[in-house]
Amino acid sequence: MRRRMGRPGLAGTMARTAVIAGTATAVSGSVRNRQEASAQQAADAHADQQQQAAPQQQAAAEQAAQAAAAQPPPPPPAPAGDDLIASLERLGTLHSQGVLTDEEFGAAKAKLLG
Q1: Torsion (CA) 4, 18, 27, 36 in degrees, nearest 10
Q2: For the chain, what is the total number of helices (H) and then of strands (E)?
């Protein structure tokens, strides 16, 4: 029997195509599975980090809240320009009416200006 030399026949070409397609499918499936496993491991690691960090973050938030509660409230702001002038005029009026003594007027004025 004589073998044909040269290009393969139709059956040989179909067989080779089937082998190549099967190999490509197997390779792409294993690559996809590997990528999914890697993504799952990364997600698990991230979730573990979140769980470990949650108590630390809660403790830090509680410490910050305690520190904020321990600080006294800030002093009231000094009167602005118009408010300062109005307050000084009111003090002057009270002093001229005799409601405030010289010492009381001086102390109140120093407090406003100080």
Answers
A1: 180
A2: 3, 0
Give pLDDT, residue 102: 92
Tracing tokens 């007027």 back to the chain, one arrives at: 105
Sign of the C-alpha dihedral computed for residues 99, 101, 103 and 109 taken in this order: positive
Mean pLDDT in the chain? Answer: 81
111 close to 103: Cβ distance less than 8 angstroms: no
Residue 28, classed as helix, strand or coil, is helix
What does the alpha-carbon distance between residue 88 and residue 108 come to, in Å, rounded to a whole number?
9
Q: What is the pTM of this model?
A: 0.36
- What is the C-alpha to C-alpha distance for residues 69 and 81, in angstroms, rounded to an integer? 32
- Pull the structure tokens for residue 60: 């830090």
Are the C-beta atoms of 84 and 112 separated by less than 8 Å? yes
